[in-house]
Design goal:
The structure is a single chain. By secondary structure, the protein is mainly α. It has one domain. Helix content is about 65%, strand content about 5%. Strand 1 and strand 2 form a beta hairpin. The longest helix has 27 residues. The protein is globular and about 50 Å long. The protein starts with a helix and ends in a 14-residue tail after the last helix.
Length: about 150
């Protein structure tokens, strides 16, 4: 299937939306001192969207294979941010957020704006809740200096 330039410009709106949603997720992570931030998450979401769009328009082979490889490829990238430090794992949430950001881009690629926006919103909400006083009540983790957790 060939795609004319006007249709390609209209489809490119999906790329912009995917990048902006991913960048917004990255802004939240960067704002809270995480290494992976605006550029990382924006580019992951953009790349996932781009691969998703490419998979829609290929004329040969299995169109779902490109989108399916996003899942394992981003998983490999996310694994690279997980580190062990003094017996504790660090970066697991960042890795999971990277993986979920790829789903935002893929959803936008397949013209599923509600799913993409909802997924980005849930990611942001989940991270925002971590910084509330109620998180300590829900989480079993001891948060140093948190008023609702007494240091043992």
């Amino acid at each position: 299937m060939s795609i004319d330039w006007i249709h390609e410009l209209l489809v490119s709106v999906r790329l912009i939306v995917a990048f902006l949603l991913g960048a917004f997720i990255g802004w939240e992570r960067e704002h809270h001192g995480q290494e992976a931030g605006i550029r990382t998450f924006g580019l992951i979401s953009l790349g996932a969207c781009s691969f998703g769009l490419i998979s829609i328009f290929v004329e040969y082979g299995d169109q779902g294979r490109i989108a399916a490889q996003i899942v394992s490829g981003i998983g490999f990238l996310g694994a690279g941010v997980i580190m062990r430090d003094s017996g504790h794992l660090k970066g697991i949430t960042t890795a999971a957020t990277i993986w979920c950001s790829a789903s935002v881009g893929t959803a936008i690629a397949f013209d599923m704006y509600v799913i993409g926006i909802l997924t980005a919103s849930i990611i942001l909400l989940f991270h925002a809740l971590r910084n509330t006083k109620y998180w300590a009540l829900v989480s079993n983790k001891k948060i140093p200096g948190h008023p609702l957790h007494k240091d043992s």
